[in-house]
Amino acid sequence: MAEAPPLLALEGLKVSYGGIQAVKGIDLVVGRGELVCLIGANGAGKSTTLKGVTGLQPVSGGTVRYDGEDVTGRPAFELVRRGLAMVPEGRGVFGALSIEENLAMGAYIRSDKAGIREDVERAFALFPRLKERRRQTAGTLSGGEQQMLAMARALMSRPRLLLLDEPSMGLAPLMVQKVFETVIAVSREGVTILLIEQNAKLALEVSHRGYVMESGTITLAGEAKALLHDPKIRAAYLGVGA
Fold it and tell me: For 3-47, what is each residue's pLDDT tens digit?
């Protein structure tokens, strides 16, 4: 019996942004059930990689394979229907809508009302703070609460693959901890995750494997624990002498 292909495979992916080639032919694989992180400094090309995967930025070369199928350049809404969801950098919640209404927007591709209700309660179990404020408008929430809502809304589509773009950005340390606890919980439920993150230490601590990106290329890849103890990684991203 043939082995199932990885859930996501980038092969020689190139993405240009504003006339500059921001992603320069990278290879990256996320296996089913894995939590994989892509770390690197600001401007390395991490977020542009996700935009290329999700069709938000045109791919100038290479291939995006999802569940073994070439989906290069497919629009984001089509990928959502196939089970791929993304939480963008900056969260992007609907500020004028309530928490409950935001969650309903996350389930727009679904028609199973009982299942949607179940998933709303599941979201509230993952994020009790959202349950307390369920009728509050999203624009009045703190940054951390908005990040929780953005993740909960993405989970409402019942994704097989969840792309998280800088979930810790701009959050207080205690809220960063809560967000990462949730990332671990979602991963343990069987959702495959590709995590883009500037906080290299936290990302590597929660991931199975990691990739390091510099100036649009992958410079290191391996088991997360090994990368966490790599002298070059420690010196460049963890503030520890090599």
Answer: 789 999 999 999 998 788 999 999 999 999 999 999 998 889 999
**Structure-token pair, residue 173:** 């340390």
Distance (Å, whole) CA 236 – CA 242: 9
The answer to whether 144 touches 171, Cβ cutoff 8 Å, is yes
User: Which residue has 């069709």 as its token pair?
Assistant: 55
For the residues of 212-239, what is the DSSP string, one character each? EEETTEEEEEEEHHHHHT-HHHHHHHS-
Would you state the structure tokens that stand for residue 176, as one six-digit string? Answer: 């960063």
pTM assigned to the model: 0.94
Share of the chain above pLDDT 90, in %: 86
Residue-wise pLDDT tens digits, 50-97: 999 999 999 999 999 999 999 999 998 899 999 999 998 877 899 999
Both tokens of 19, joined, read 């006339």
Domains and their CATH numbers in the chain: 8-92+154-237 (3.40.50.300)
Contact 15, 58 (CB under 8 A): yes
Phi-psi region of 13 (alpha: psi -120 to 50; beta: other; left: phi over 0): beta
CA distance 36 to 22: 21
